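Fill in residues.
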């Protein structure tokens, strides 16, 4: 029996052509073509979307300028692989760099928190549970400190700061333009997605992240401003940042049926790993040091990383070059296995110390390492299978499951590598399998797991 549906053309704003088609059916019967609801896309709102995109792109340039110059000061890095630059300096210099990062980060974050009490710099919480009001001074301070310590080797993601400053741009501009709380929240979500998009040159992935993860709805009124803000921020960031893929020179691996079989089997396993990873992040986030103990937290964590980095310098930084090597099919089973175990440990140690940073690239690199590992193991039975293709599949599945956003995970990996379309079916198979497992086992993501007490009622 046909379900009764409202066929009136009740859309806000109303379309210029008000006459229905001869069938008499309403255009809004297509589920994503909804009205604007409580978030009207007015001319003032669209103006703020454009300005937010420009501001986000400029903040992305500023923050990457800080990151790159700190990498140069700490490791003489200017171009090529950051991992190779870290390996080229002495073990003592690596440890000293992280000692300085621990002292600077611990003191700076302690002072910032002390003098900005009750000021919000939690982008996700403000979108999901607040009114989209973020503190500019606390957010810019947090972002600059974060990029400074990441440039000096801290094992956390660089995307958190530009994502936050994109959200702050939307918050400040939305308040200045006197937008409604709902409009401001949407603008903050668009800015957050655009922040990630502009520093990784992933305009589509950033927009999907804003709609799927931050706003939670892939409807036309959400996707349109997200896409607009994302492409404007990305194009603006080209003033300083390159306009090519983040991971360059990745081979065009062909599709093989054995890759699909392995992906189907690996997906649920990656889902189990993602569940454990997210739970670990939630645990260390809740138990991070507070008060005066927060002064020493980053120092202890970063020094530990520096000592481990004497033998494994690949662990320094967010893991971008680690993932790149896995995508290219580098390393053997031993190194891939060791780094796969160590990267989540040192990253959770840094997060648990109170250091502020992202988890996107550390999560992606962990998935790439595991994918490369199982790819090499799989090739023992089927020689000739490229482990780089398995690494790309593993990265997409791990990031999709850990974010509870399979669409975003796949699109982001495709944009980051500019390859993988030939084996998109295995990538989707692994990502769906992994996300199904995490959704039914737990349901938290790397974003919701970091929320503080009483920030969310339930999973």
């Amino acid at each position: 029996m046909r379900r009764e549906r409202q066929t009136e053309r009740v859309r806000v704003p109303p379309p210029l052509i008000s006459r229905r088609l001869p069938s008499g059916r309403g255009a809004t019967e297509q589920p994503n073509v909804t009205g604007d609801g409580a978030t009207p896309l007015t001319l003032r709102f669209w103006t703020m979307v454009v300005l937010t995109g420009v501001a986000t792109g400029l903040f992305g340039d500023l923050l990457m300028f800080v990151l790159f110059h700190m990498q140069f000061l700490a490791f003489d890095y200017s171009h090529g692989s950051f991992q190779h630059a870290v390996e080229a300096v002495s073990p003592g210099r690596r440890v000293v760099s992280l000692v300085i990062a621990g002292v600077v980060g611990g003191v700076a974050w302690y002072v910032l928190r002390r003098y900005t009490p009750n000021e919000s710099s939690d982008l996700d919480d403000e979108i999901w549970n607040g009114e989209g009001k973020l503190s500019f001074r606390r957010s810019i301070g947090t972002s600059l400190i974060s990029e400074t310590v990441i440039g000096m080797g801290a094992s956390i993601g660089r995307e958190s700061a530009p994502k936050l400053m994109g959200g702050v741009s939307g918050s400040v501009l939305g308040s200045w333009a006197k937008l409604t709380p709902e409009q401001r929240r949407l603008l903050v979500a668009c800015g957050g997605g655009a922040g990630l998009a502009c520093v990784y040159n992933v305009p589509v992935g950033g927009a999907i992240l804003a709609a799927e993860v931050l706003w939670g709805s892939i409807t036309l009124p959400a996707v349109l401003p997200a896409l607009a803000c994302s492409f404007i921020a990305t194009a603006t960031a080209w003033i300083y940042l390159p306009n090519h893929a983040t991971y360059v020179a990745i081979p065009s691996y062909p599709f093989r049926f054995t890759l699909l079989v392995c992906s189907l089997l690996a997906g649920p396993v990656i889902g189990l790993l993602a569940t454990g990873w997210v739970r670990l992040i939630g645990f260390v986030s809740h138990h991070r040091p507070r008060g005066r103990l927060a002064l020493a937290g980053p120092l202890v964590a970063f020094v530990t990383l520096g000592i481990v980095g004497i033998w494994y310098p690949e662990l320094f930084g967010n893991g971008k070059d680690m993932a790149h090597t896995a995508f290219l099919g580098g390393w053997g089973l031993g190194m891939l296995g060791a780094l796969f175990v160590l990267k989540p440990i040192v990253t959770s140690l840094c997060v648990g110390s109170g250091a502020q940073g992202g988890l996107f690239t550390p999560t992606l690199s962990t998935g790439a390492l595991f994918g490369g590992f199982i790819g090499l193991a799989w090739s023992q039975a089927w020689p000739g299978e490229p482990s780089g293709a398995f690494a790309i599949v593993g990265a997409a599945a791990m990031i999709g499951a850990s974010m509870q956003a399979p669409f975003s995970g796949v699109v982001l990996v495709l944009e980051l590598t500019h390859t993988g379309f030939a084996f998109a079916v295995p990538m989707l198979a692994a990502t769906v399998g992994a996300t199904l497992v995490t959704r039914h086992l737990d349901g938290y993501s790397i974003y919701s797991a970091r929320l503080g007490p009483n920030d969310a009622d339930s999973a």
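The domain at 257-450 is CATH 1.10.3080.10 (Clc chloride channel).
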